[in-house]
Each structure stands twice: as structure tokens, then as C-alpha cells.
Amino acid sequence: MFNWIRPQNQLDERSVDKGLHNLLYEGVFGQVMLVLTMGPFVVAYALHLGASNKTIGLLAAVGPMAQIVQIPAIYLLERIRMRKLLVTLAGGLSRASLLIVAMVPLFVPTRLRLAAILILLCAHFGIGAIAQCAYNSWFRDVIPEQRMASFLASRLTWATLVGALISFLGGAALDFVKTHMDPTLAYSALFAIGGTSGLTALCFLARTPEPVMPRAEHASLTSLLTEPLRDGRYRPLLVFLGWWVFAVNFAAPFFAVYLISRLGLSMTWVLTLSVTSQLFNVLFFGLWGRLSERFGNKAVLTLCVPLFFCTFLLWPFTTMPERHAFTLPILFGIHIIAGIATAGVALCASNLTLKAAPYGKGAAYLAVNSLVSGLAATIAPLFAGFAADAFEPYQLKLTLSFLNWRTEQTNLALRTLDLKGLDFVFLAAFAFGLYCSHRLLAVKEEGLVEDRATRQAFFGEMRRMVRQVSTVAGMRQVMAFPFIYLTTRATRTFRSAAKTLPVPAQDTEQRQ
After folding, report:
1. Which helix (H) or strand (E) holds 117?
2. Residues of the chain whose pLDDT is less than 70?
3. pLDDT tens-digit series, residues 5-28
4. Residue 490 has what pLDDT?
5. Which pLDDT score is estimated for 411?
6. For residue 4, what pLDDT is reported?
7. Is 209 left (phi over 0), alpha (psi -120 to 50) or beta?
């Protein structure tokens, strides 16, 4: 009766294919759960209930804060050694709590609803961290390493595409419902659908085969936790990922606050921008996957990480000092660039993390990675929330004036910079992002190719995509000049770089 939950000594090719098939569906339904219960929806719900910037920061910190539970979860996992059992039980309880969140407006007074939601989300993330610890190890061992990059790209593509569609429909439905009924009930419906989707994802996960967990050397919990920190190859990766998460979470939780409170956009517009970013995620997963296989994950990260953080500098220009005609074009530009960059970071950071974790020690290594990232993601929004409230009454103006110094008559006054409130938070996040880019330089990866070659290949791929999409001669001519120059220069670089790359054994056998 319980054979489905028992680990298998060895997985044949058919079992692996079945597992990857179920993991693909699990990723899609899990993404639906995330987009409906986190991000802009939960921020809008909190603002509807009267949350301050500090409360928004606390709300964003709840999930990462719960990752501390992974420390005892490692010990529990090593004792039980049945990852599917832990994921099924803990994951079921965690996701069922979202259904309880949906019922909060029915039983809790208005003044206590925000506190009740925070407590329930703490339970959701805390119990979910136990499941996540076992899930990471299981996920690492069930996917063949030679298929990991392609599978992750496919899984992220489908999950992001479906999540984008569901989030847009949810935002449009929310704006429509607001004019006909209490929006609180609409938010509850979103949590109910999200919780149900999460439980559905768990059903697919339960059908995924689990290999027997490799037995690690007997070691104390302290030793298991400190081993990744002593690993000279893994430690720089932890530092980089910690700073990445800190810089992103210093600003990202307040994007929705900025759009809703500062710019006065509806949820439809907020989700349209989010969907735009996610669609460009989908479009560029394949490109970044090809480049990472060709030049390495770190080479792609050195291009994507700075590109993403540069978008933080564009947010203040959406209000100069108030909403203007170019606000929406700038916002779309921000989300397009962010979508392109985060596709590369999500794919390549996952590849690096999974490949750097030794086989059989994935639970400890990935748990430590979650703890470091969780600590950074906990501290960042809390600090940002206090900083946002502290800078709220302040404003920095920079005006370029053309005047007659004799009469002191101003002929032209151009306001070039106008910062206030959350603008200072975004600038601080950009500064943290610069240091994160510096820490990436210390990450080591075998077979690394010169960064310039990666940039040239990226532009070459962009030119190919434009040529496939557009048949307009004028568009091709506009795109032709810079790419012809770059690809001509890139030819010698690619040939020399290819000679330095190790030839995979499988390719050598095929050639023979």
C-alpha cells in the first residue's frame, strides 16, 4: 500500500523520464501557487488592510526568516532518510495553511486580519522549510547531471509562462471585482485557488520516484553545516548568492508599493508589467541556456547581474517629480530589461548551485545555501522598510537653470533629478548590487570563457532572433551595422576560446 513512498535502490531510464515529467507539472502548479499568494497580490492585500512600509518589509521577510527551520530539518532528514515522506507531510500542512488564510475574512475582525495573515504565513513558510530541505536533496539526485541544464530551462519556461498568464488574469479579475463587491473576498479567493494549486503540485510530486538517499559519513550537525562553508569552491558562491538576494530583496518588495501607492496604477497595469517581465523571461531562457552550455554559467552571470541592477537606477525617472507621459514606457523598459536579466540569473545560478553540491551531500549544501540566502532576504526588506519610512519626508532636487546673472531672471529651469521616499531605497539597492557584481568575480567555474566573447555571442543571438521575427528590410538594416561589426570581431575570439574548452567524453566517442 505504501510502496509509492519508499525510495528505490536504482532508477532506470523510464523511471527518470517519469520523474522529470511529474516535476515539470509540479513546477507549473507550484508557480501558480506562488504568483497568487506572493508578490504583488499579497502586497496589494496588505496595503488594502492598511499596512505601512515596515509591515511590507516584515511581510517580505517572513518567508526567508523561516529558512532557519532547515537546520533541524537536516538532522530530521538524516534520521528518517525518506525524502518523499517528509515533503508530502510537511508540504501538505504548509500549503493547507493558505486555505486557512483564505478564510480569515470570514472569522477574524478587520483590525486583526493583517496580524492573522502574518501568523499564518509564518506557519506556511516554517513548515514548508522542512519540506524544502528534503525537496532540494531529492530534486538534486533525481535529475541526471547531463540533462540538468535543459530540464531546468524547460521547467522554468513553462512555469513562468503559465504563472504569467494566471497572474494577469488574477489582476484583471481583481480590478473587475473591486467595482462590484468587497475586494477582501477577492483576495481570499486568490489564496484559495493558490492553496489548491499548491496541493495539486504536491500530488504530482508524490508520483515522482525517489532514489535511495546516499548515506553520508557519520558527522555532527555542526560539521554538516560548516562543511559547505569550508569548501573553497562553494564558499565564494554562497557569498555571491547572499549579496544577490540581499540587494534584490532590498528593493523588489517595494516595487508593487511604488506602482500602487506612488503612481496610482491599477492591479491590471501592475500585473501587465509583471507579465511583460515574465514573458521576456520565457523568451530568453533558451538563449541563456545555449550561452551557458557554450561559455559557462559564470560568464552569463557576469552579463546578467549588472544588467539587472542597472534597472534600479531607472525607477526614480518614472516620477520627475510626478507621473508624466514617459512613465509607462520607462516602466515597460525596466520590466523588459529585468525579465531578460533575471532569466539568465535564475537559470545559471541554479545550475551553479546544484552542480557545486557534491552528490550525496546535497541536503546539507543546499540547506546552507538556503540559510545564507534566507538570512540575507530576511534582513534586507526589514532594513529597507525602516529606510523607506525614514526617508519618506525627505526630498532631493537637482535643477539645471539657465539665467541672466545680472537681472537674476531665469529663462529656463530643467529639473534633472527629484528623489523622495522609495527612490532612496532603490539607489541603495543599486549600490549593494555593485558590490554583488564584485563578489561574482571570486566564483570559480571550470571551462570559463572570456566575458567579451559571451557579450558578443549574446548580441549575435539577438540579431538571429530579430531576423527570425522580422522580415522588414529596414529593421534588418538598423540591426545589421553593430552586429556585423561585433560578429566579425567575435570570430577569432570564439575559435581561440573553443580550443581552450575541454571536449566532453561523449562528443569524443561520437567523433571516433
Report:
1. helix 113-142
2. 1-4, 215-221, 224-225, 321, 359-363, 404-408, 410-416, 446-512
3. 777 777 777 888 888 888 889 889
4. 41
5. 65
6. 66
7. beta
pTM beyond 0.85: the answer is no
401: left (phi over 0), alpha (psi -120 to 50) or beta: beta
Cα angle 285, 287, 293; round to 5 = 100
Structure confidence at residue 220 (pLDDT): 62
Half-sphere exposure of 261 (CA within 13 A, CB side): 20
pLDDT at 307: 92
Residue 460's contacts (CB-CB under 8 Å, 6 or more residues apart) are 483, 486, 487, 490
Choose among 211, 216, 210: nearest CA to 360.
216
CA distance 508 to 512: 6
CA distance 370 to 234: 13
C-alpha grid cell, residue 309: 541592477
113 phi, psi to nearest 5 deg? -65, -45
Calpha distance 468→90 (Å, rounded) = 47
The per-residue b/e assignment along 144-169, b for 16 or more CB within 10 angstroms, e otherwise, is eeeebbeebbbbbbbbbbbbbebbbe
Please name the residues in contact with 330: beta carbons below 8 A apart, sequence gap of 6 or more.
Answer: 314, 317, 318
Exposure b/e, 323-360, CB count within 10 A at least 16 = b: eeeebbebbebbbbbbbbbbbbbbbbbbbbbbebbbee
CA distance 254 to 249: 9
CB 58 within 8 A of CB 288: no
Amino acid at 450: E
Residue 408 φ/ψ region, left for φ over 0, alpha for ψ in the -120 to 50 degree band, beta for the rest: left
Q: Name the DSSP class of 323.
A: B
As a whole number of angstroms, the distance between CA 341 and CA 335 comes to 10
